[in-house]
Automatic annotation (TrEMBL):
Domain of life: Eukaryota
Organism: Channa striata (Snakehead murrel)
PROSITE patterns: SUSHI (PS50923)
Record-given protein name: Beta-2-glycoprotein 1
Major location category of this protein: secreted
């Protein structure tokens, strides 16, 4: 029992002593994230001074840089502020771009080059504590190709003067073939962003077989021979047939002729009585001599609006010998046509 009482009194004395030692002392001050102090001491006696400084990469502005522990155990106030150091704004990057949000301490700039250019130098830079960037602005240099490959029996004409054995990205040229060879493929050449030239074409001799004639037509040439690349043959149609398509075909680089035209037949107007509108003229069908409408020509037939008692013209087109008569057209009888022609849809008031 005596031992327990002794321990209780001893603990009370120690607690009392520690508490009294910290009365009216200052604890280690809480500072802004950008401010620091030396040492690791936790408690300070009244009258103790602390020297404050800015952390790396920051500059002090306003306010004293010292604080004092007062008799009340509180530190004196300071208005010291530490602001981040600033780096200069970066120079422009020719043939490239850069991205950044700020130029203060620890800010980052990222550099990229445009397509067809290679970055020489650091792709990023950090604003350092001394107010300078960690790396200078890089350069964007163009991708280079060798000289353009030349097809057999061919040549290339560059679109700008070339010096040495290299060409820069974007340089272009035009391939040509020596006669009688024909260029097969794309004639335009370009140094691409990959450092390679576009696909090289081929130079070869191209001929087409003798062309065939078309039905109801004729050709400008009927020679039984092979025709050279880009040679042409013209077509025409007999009589009142109309040529549809290009009148000329050409021997293509694949050794085949371009699409042939065709000859389209004329139409006849298959009514016995009535009046039509043809080439802006109103004609009685009996007066239409010859009764012929060419392919793609327009003929209008007159129909009647019974409710309004008026006539109106409905157009239809000749298509390769076929002329469809509008469903609304009613061919008049012989009596109405011969004795009462004035009452026909073509003669009464038009709608």
């Amino acid at each position: 029992m005596e031992t327990s009482l002794t321990l209780l009194l001893l603990c009370s004395f120690v607690f009392s002593t520690v508490t009294s030692e910290h009365d009216n002392v200052c604890s280690r001050p809480e500072l802004a994230d950008t401010i620091e102090m030396d040492g690791i001491q936790r408690y300070f006696s009244p009258g103790a001074e602390l020297v404050l400084s800015c952390k790396e990469g920051h500059t002090p502005v306003s306010g004293p840089r010292r604080i004092v522990c007062s008799a009340s155990g509180q530190w004196t106030h300071t208005k010291l502020k530490c602001i981040p150091k600033l780096c200069p704004y970066p120079d422009l990057l020719s043939n490239g771009e850069f991205y950044y949000e700020d130029v203060k301490y620890q800010s980052v700039i990222n550099y990229t080059c445009n397509e067809g250019y290679i970055l020489i130098g650091a792709s990023s830079a950090v604003c350092q504590a001394n107010g300078t960037w960690s790396a200078p602005v890089p350069e964007c240099t163009p991708v280079t190709c060798g000289l353009a490959p030349i097809p057999k029996f061919g040549m290339i004409v560059y679109h700008k003067k070339i010096r040495g054995n290299t060409t820069d990205y974007g340089v272009t040229g035009t391939y040509r073939c020596l006669p009688p060879y024909v260029l097969i493929g794309n004639a335009r050449a370009e140094c691409t962003a990959s450092g390679n030239w576009t696909k090289i074409p081929e130079c070869r001799v191209v001929t087409c077989p003798p062309p065939e004639n078309i039905d109801k037509g004729y050709m400008s040439s009927s020679d039984d021979r092979d025709y050279d690349y880009m040679e042409t043959v013209k077509y025409g149609c007999h009589g009142h047939y109309v040529l549809e398509g290009s009148m000329q075909i050409v021997c293509q680089d694949n050794g085949k002729w371009s699409e042939k035209p065709s000859c389209k037949a004329p139409c006849s107007v298959d009514i016995q009585r009535g009046r039509i509108l043809y080439k802006d003229q109103k004609l009685w069908i009996a007066d239409m001599q010859p009764n012929r409408v060419l392919h793609k020509e327009i003929v209008s037939f007159y129909c009647k609006d019974n409710a309004r008692n008026c006539g109106y013209a409905v157009p239809t087109q000749c298509t390769d010998g076929k002329l469809k008569i509008p469903e609304c057209f009613e061919e008049p009888g012989a009596v109405d046509y011969n004795l009462y022609a004035g009452s026909l849809p073509s003669e009464i008031k038009q709608c």
